[in-house]
Amino acid sequence: MKNDQNVPYKDVESIFLDSPSAFNKINKKIRKYNNKIKSEIKLKGMKDTWEHARNLFKTKEYLFVAVDVESYERDHSCILEVGWSMFDSKDNKFMDRHFCAKEYEHLKNGQFVPDRKDRFSFGETVWENLSKIATEIIKDLTEEKEKGRVVFVGHDLRMDVKYLESMKVNVEEVINPVAYFDTAEMNAARVGKPNVRTNLGRLLDELDIENYCLHNAGNDAHYTLCLFLELCRLSPEDTASQAGSSSD
User: Which positions fall inside the Gfd2/YDR514C-like C-terminal domain (predicted)?
Assistant: First the structure.
């Protein structure tokens, strides 16, 4: 079918290819340019998502929830700890919970990551079977008063959701969040580098968010939520001014 619509072009230039090396040179230039455009499009999408998070936070209507899972360092299918932190923006209150799995009580980390399951800072640690832990998550996030107001947050969110699904907690079907936000991606938008991912501890320190005993699932969930709230308080203008001052 004929299409009479004119397609605009930009940055058009004529070239003369007289050798394989000339072709390779221009091909490399085109790939570099295309990657730049892809990166710009990706960054714009991430900035739009960051702005969406900020707008939801401003309404003071939503329950923001971060979940963290600690697995066994030698077999990541073995879930040792699950923690979740809830911030109700209506009354500015946190509620934190931390569970350890009875099934794997005999397993301890320590060679590759610290074992800090007994260092929960925001309440009491409870030992339960994973099935009971899953029930508690669902109960907390599907109460009548929470329907239609849960916003799901994580640092490397896809992995957290994957762990929950292995516990038979289908986040999309059972909890049905209003939105999902990954703090690692929000920070990438903040610094203007869409492919950069900064680990939780380093990012907390960068933003002067006090933290203690990371690698405890309950603590990590709480600090992930603190990070999310701080990123929601910041704005692109804040980021631009910081970048300007650091370049002086």
Answer: 64-230
